[in-house]
Amino acid sequence: MNPGILKKDSWLVGIIMGICLPIIVFIILFLMDMLLNKYAGINLTSKFDYLYLLSFIGNLFPIRHYLVKLKFEKSGLGVLLVTLACIIIYFYLFFEPK
Predict the structure, then answer these.
(1) 11 and 72 in contact (C-beta within 8 Å)?
(2) 11-39 and 73-94 are packed helices; what angle lies between their axes, rounded to 10 degrees?
(3) What is the pTM of this model?
(4) Is-contact 80 19, C-beta < 8 A?
């Protein structure tokens, strides 16, 4: 019986999941923000780039699942690597010192 691609301890699985999951969460948050803005006149965040940062919250669940429950260090660290890289890119692009 084939365990499936998500049950492998591989850097590639972790990196792909670390990229795809925030995209899905971002689309969901963006659609929720559009609906709230259209029907209630409010936004989820005060700035649009905060949605980018919020989308990486979705990566916390696979990180914990792979590192703690399954003990797949390569997959968990692949997700963590992508998450940290994207957060560093966020602060480089959007942080404005006062």
Answers:
(1) no
(2) 50
(3) 0.87
(4) no
pLDDT of residue 68: 93
Tell me the average confidence (pLDDT) per consecutive run of 10 residues in the chain, 98 residues long. 77 95 95 94 88 92 92 94 95 86
d(CA 32, CA 13): 28
Distance CA 31, CA 71 (A): 34
Closest to 84 measured CA to CA, from 10, 18, 6, 30: 18
**Phi-psi domain of 96 (left: phi exceeds 0; alpha: psi -120 through 50; beta: other):** beta
Q: What is the DSSP string of the chain?
A: ----GGGS--HHHHHHHHHHHHHHHHHHHHHHHHHHHHHTS--SSSSTHHHHHHGGGGGHHHHHIIIIIS--HHHHHHHHHHHHHHHHHHHHHH----
